Amino acid sequence: MGKSGGGKTSMRSIIFANYSAKDTRRLGATMDVEQSYVRFLGNLILNLWDCGGQEAFMECYFTAQKDNIFKNVEVLIYVFDVQSQELDKDLHYYQSCLESILQHSSHAKIFCLVHKMDLISEDMRETIFAERQNILTNLSKPLQCSCFRTSIWDETLYKAWSQIVYQLVPNVKGLEKTLTNFAEIIDADEILLFEKATFLVISHCTRKAHRDPRRFEKISDIIKQFKLSCSKLTAAFQSMEVRNSTFACFIELLTPNTYVMVVISDPSISSEVTLMNIRNARKVFEKLEKDVARN
Amino acid sequence: MVDTTSPHVNDTSGENNNDPSIAFMRPRILLTGLRRSGKTSIQRVIFTKMQPSQTQFLESTPQLVTNHFSCGSFINFQVQELPGQLHVFPSSQSSSVTGETNEQSSSYDDDASHMLGNGYDMERLLKRCHAVVYIIDAQDDYSESIARLNMIIQLGCTVNPKIRYEVFIHKVDQLSEEAKSDTQRDIHNQVRDRFTDTGNELDHWPSTPFSSNTNSRGVLINFHLTSIYDHSIFEAFSKVIQKLLPQFGHLEYLLNYLLTASNIEQAFLFDIQTKISIATDSSPTDMQMYELCCDMIDLLINMSEIYGQPNGNDGDEIENDVDYDPTNGQEMNGIHSAAEDLYQNSSRAIDQQCYSETTDEPAFNVFDSMSSSVIKLTGGRALYLKEINHHLALICVLREEALAKQAIIDYNVKQLKDSILKL
């Protein structure tokens, strides 16, 4: 949810529908609620309600459609346009949302995205975001909200959405445990697990500390961009290997719904060995996925 | 106020006259156009990897800016950017032939906020350059721009008939396909018209959409549709540089040989830093493949930057990527893969002539001798990237089956690498 023109549909299109940031220019205003069913991790179906933010619709959500919209919500994502001139009005609508959520789906997780941060010059971004985060956290009490600053033009979009979908991954702990085992066996520095369609990081195991805490979303961004480029040639990438003298990184399909990225810095391990290990690990992860699906 | 052009001119004009081989090894490109046409943005996006969206924060360039661009030991370019809002006039009209400060020239300045005491001697600039890249803003009314272009071409013909003119019809990202070809045709006609006025023969209208040739009195003019928001600017600039490169023929030959020897479909030699293609094989290339190769380079560099830092760099800030040694204490043009600080750099007041040099230092410290990448695509194709030297990478497009003979390919590539290094 969020005010009209805030960026909700753009974000959704980029993450779930393979739009590039430029493509979102041609999106029009969303009329009423657009429901989409997004396949995630193969057998998980996310029911995404993109609520048009024009005032007429907003008024409706809190009155006539209240039951319909706010019942059975697992995740509320509220998008704030950082450049909005009507902050008070935005906050007022947000509050109405919170009231409705408290009433009908009090267990929902709440995410606030302070969006279009690219329009703010870089040196101001942290300060402005911190300010907003403060306001929103206070306003949301007693509910808890997680705030992120985002822009469709950089990797911050992926960070926020990665956290959002992480909440929804079934058996995420089991997945992490298996990944850790795998990493130990093949002596990898780091292993990331991506959901296949969105390339959001859903799990990871880090055995060697890394200095860049923002690398996950950067990688999602990098790979997604490349994926989009490939699609221009009506091709898609299947696997890749990148190396230099200090590292080697392999991105391969692991299960029908996930990609794995293995980072190895031991130069004595050849590519073939790692690829073979990944091939063998596939069976384990596929079984894991099937078990979860059955349960 | 520092007198900018005269010491510079005096330095190199003598060099030009006495040693033509050195001048040729350093092809000089004069980048010009009206103000706000996009010259600095183009340079920033190509040479310093600035994000296109950040270029809207760039200020107008007040001075002549010279960028040396060097990739490897044998490719050297000098790109001189002539700011748009200054009035440049042929030396026959000015009294600044000797390069002395001309009080009168300030009255010719278009933009009062950039009053300078010096006019630039266009004739001298044209004499020393090998190519003029003229930027026309396609989103604006371009009649004044074309008038200026025609003036430059006329002057150039008298001073240095060997100059190539490359016209970039810029900022076409917002235009539809139809509008693009209309604009190109229109500009082409207007430039031609000017020349037919002086009694030259009408030329055959070329049919290729992306670059067209006009030959009036042997003047080479090419048109390109470009935008910094996609790859067209890189492709256009690649073409410009390929034509200026003396070793291009030889490189093309080497690449063709590689193709036949290793069952590869296409091969490109790229400069990593600027993503300009220095050489390609003779087979026709389409823009998409070129774009994909550029993206592959991006991927390689970005991933290497995250995971492939040389050991011992763990304590460094994330923001700091490769820097260059400042030359003569003048402004350093550091290379950042995400242009975090560039906004600050470019808005700093520049007192002297802005002079930045990319040396033989590695373009990226994460791009080392073992940098390589293999990307497999659906449909059986694969991309194979291999480092050649600090600045160059070879990218091959081949079938996945051909990749199975990787050892042979590696050997051939190594031979290629040695040949190139010998050049």
Automatic annotation (TrEMBL), chain A:
User: What catalytic reaction does the record list?
Assistant: GTP + H2O = GDP + phosphate + H(+)
Keyword Hydrolase present in the record's keywords: the answer is yes
Recorded hits in Pfam families, A to Z, give:
Gtr1_RagA
Task: Indicate where this protein is primarily found.
Answer: cytoplasm
Secretion signal span: none
Q: Which UniProt keywords apply?
A: Cytoplasm, GTP-binding, Hydrolase, Isopeptide bond, Lysosome, Membrane, Nucleotide-binding, Ubl conjugation
Q: Which GO terms describe its molecular function?
A: GTP binding; GTPase activity
- By its UniProt entry, which InterPro entries does this protein fall under? Gtr1_RagA, P-loop_NTPase, RagA/B
Query: By its UniProt entry, which SUPFAM superfamilies does this protein fall under?
Result: P-loop containing nucleoside triphosphate hydrolases
* GO cellular component labels: endomembrane system; Gtr1-Gtr2 GTPase complex; lysosome; nucleus
> Where in or outside the cell?
Cytoplasm; Endomembrane system; Lysosome
Q: Does the keyword Oxidoreductase apply?
A: no
Which GO terms are recorded in the biological process aspect for this UniProt protein?
cellular response to starvation; negative regulation of autophagy; positive regulation of TORC1 signaling
| UniProt similarity note | Belongs to the GTR/RAG GTP-binding protein family.
Q: Which PANTHER family match?
A: RAS-RELATED GTP BINDING RAG/GTR YEAST, RAS-RELATED GTP-BINDING PROTEIN
Question: Under what name is this protein listed?
Answer: Ras-related GTP-binding protein A
Automatic annotation (TrEMBL), chain B:
Q: Which UniProt keywords apply?
A: GTP-binding, Hydrolase, Membrane, Nucleotide-binding
One GO cellular-component annotation of the UniProt record comes to: Gtr1-Gtr2 GTPase complex
Localization: Endomembrane system
Tell me where on the tree of life, at the top rank, the source sits. Answer: Eukaryota
Region Disordered: start-end pairs: 1-21, 90-113
A Gene Ontology biological process term: cellular response to starvation
Q: Which family does it belong to?
A: Belongs to the GTR/RAG GTP-binding protein family.
The name this protein carries in UniProt is GTP-binding protein
